[in-house]
Amino acid sequence: MRPSPSLSLLLAASAALTGHNVARADETSSGQYAGYRFNVYSEDALSAPSLGDPRRYEVYSQQFLLNTPVGDRNTLSVNATHEVMSGSSPWYVIPGPDNKPIQVLSGATIRDHRSAATVAFTHAAGGNDTTTVSTTYSQERDYHSAALGAERSLPLNSALTLGFGGSFSHDRIEPFEANLYDRIQRAKKNTTSAFASLSLVLDRVSVVESGIQFNYQTGYLSDPYKQVSVGDTLDPDTRPGRRGEAAWLVRYRRAFGENAALHLDSRLSANSWGQHSLTLEASWYQSLRGGWQLIPGVRYYSQSRARFYAPFFAAGSGPDFSSDYRLGAFGAAAANLNLRKRVGHWEFSAGAERYHAGTGYAIGGADSADPAVVSYTRVFAGLDYHFD
Amino acid sequence: MRSNAKLRRSSRRIEHALRWLLALAALACLGGCATQTVQPWQRGRLARWDMRWDPDPLQAAMNQHAYFSKEGTSGEIGAAGGGCGCN
Amino acid sequence: MSLRIALAVALVAAASMGFAVEPGAAAPDFRLMPFAGTKSASLSDYRGKVVLVDFWASWCGPCRQSLPLYNNLQADFPAEDFAIVAIGLDEDTADALAFLREHPIKYTALQNPKGDVAQAFGLKGMPSSYLIDRNGVVRYRHIGFEPRDIDALKREIAALIATH
After folding, report:
1. Which residue, A312, A379, B34, B77, is most buried by CB atoms nearer than 10 A?
2. CA geometry: angle at C127 spanning C125 and C130, to 5°?
3. Is residue A52, in this structure, part of any structural domain at all?
4. Do B43 and A22 touch (CB under 8 A)?
5. Is B40 in the C-facing interface, judged by CB distances under 8 Å?
6. Which of B3, B54, B79 is opposite residue A134, by nearest beta carbon?
């Protein structure tokens, strides 16, 4: 339950371009447009030894976006998301014969939906100096989150642009069936985050950006729906009451001729729970005749385990313990392909991603193969309308 | 304590990785990192849709949401949004 | 030691600022081909009129707003007193032509894909417009464009037409 990074991308959508000296944010304004996406997310059934329904999560989600200029110098961006989730979820892990971990899943009865909305307002002071303020609200049956954010993009000279900003979010969780399963009744969590970045125009065809991001969370950071085998008992998932995280990101864009561009993104991150991770992404944007765009991409991810993670624990361990696979060591390789076609004011898009995770992908390996590491397939279809 | 030793080991590993990355960046720069001044009228290619940090913001938001839900670390350039019960 | 560093920094800064045509300076002459037609045009052809020289490109957002609005500007003043010359800086002329097809303009549009005229004027941003008086001297320079700029432009043009 960490802050969702989606806001920054809506702010990217709302970046209005007025004025001169296009330092970075060279992008011609997106203008007034509306977008819709339908996404299907489907996890592979669990192949490792397990108990309970091995069919995992399926999520259907819809996204709506409206981007519109307000007067000469401002842009308003409104985004809404609605998701319906169903499927079984990892619950706890027990040691099987040979101490091999066996994942126990909840029944495929979890069915929940989430609605979220973000409103962002960008003001251009002229010369590509833009400031954006935003607010987000997300709601599920058991989880509510409200956030406020602000950021500024400031050209320092014709080649360098400085970006910085921060956000704060306050989350509340009220797990369902709390009494039935001896879960906490309600809890809160606060997250503060800040970032700073510098982008540099290298030459007429390439740009690079380097940024750092910090976030700090306090409150209830455990998962109330998960339990942990500690000796012979099942204890609730117990994580520390605070977590700090820092990340260093570098991204690079290079145009090849008039019809192609290469995107390279990397991220190194570390947190106070002992995890560190590496992410590498590459995409190729190819324009074809007739207004088509073909965009293949790959992604590699590797993370290490949290100090208090293990599939199961000996009696007397603590004070913190969790067997959530997301706190374990694993890695993932993903490949994706997107297609876009512009027809007059309309733009059609569609794409798919195949994400394969496993402890074998992790740099440095993993002491224990977590049974719940998940692979998935995602597909989407989208429609955009450009008003001008 | 045992955990302190592990912390020291992992922070040394991060230092090592960072030093490697910096060395790589320096090497790449030897090939010509000195930036050329790009005049305002020469920025046509930089202004293209496929040269944006995020050409498709809706798609990028969904990608980040998926990775964020299924992985243990996150972080992007830009102000973070609200949370969800997905993770 | 610090003085030498300060001097060095100042020199580098001065060098990077580069040359720019400021109000009060004579506008550099140029001869360019139009997008439509075969007869080249030069700035000196317009001597005796007030001229708005506007540098644009199809990829520049504010330029896409300004060019259609300048149609009205041309209509507001007599043709014998005022002319607009829009210089297109697209490296790929096809992009500029596509833009002009979508947004027809009623004034002169010349092409300068090499960008040497922009270099001669020392453009600091896109778009840039220069208001030149009847004697070929730059009187006003605007960097960037917002629709509200049209009112200020009208006042400046009227003032320049009135003076001889």
Report:
1. B77
2. 95
3. yes
4. yes
5. yes
6. B79
* Residue A281: inside a domain: yes
**Count of structural domains, chain A:** 1
pLDDT in tens, chain C (164 residues): 666 665 655 555 544 456 789 999 999 999 999 999 899 999 999 999 999 999 999 999 899 889 999 999 999 999 999 999 999 999 999 999 999 998 999 999 999 999 999 999 999 999 999 999 999 999 999 999 988 899 999 999 999 999 86
B3 to chain C, any CB pair closer than 8 A? The answer is no
By residue range, what is the domain housing residue A18? 6-386
For chain C, report the end-to-end CA distance as a whole number of angstroms.
54
C31-32 vs A206-219, strand pairing mode: unpaired
Enumerate domains of chain C plus CATH numbers.
22-162 (3.40.30.10)
Q: Which residues pair with B34 in a beta bridge?
A: none
Neighbours of chain B (3+ CB pairs under 8 A): A, C
State pLDDT tens for residues A74-122.
999 999 999 999 888 888 888 888 888 888 888 766 678 999 999 999 9
Considering only CA atoms, which of A102, A366, A40 is closest in space to residue A229? A102
Task: Tell me the chain B residues in contact with residue A9 when contact means C-beta distances shorter than 8 Å.
Answer: 54, 57-58, 60-61, 64, 78
Has residue A292 been placed in a domain?
yes
- By Cβ distance, the residue of B37, B41, B48 closest to C89 is B41
- Collect all residues of chain C within an 8 Å Cβ-Cβ radius of residue A74: none
Tell me if A131 sits within 8 A of A123, measured CB to CB: yes
The answer as to whether A1 is a domain residue is no
Q: Model pTM greater than 0.90?
A: no
Q: Which residue of C has its CA nearest to A21?
A: C125
Sign of CA dihedral A44, A238, B80, A328: negative
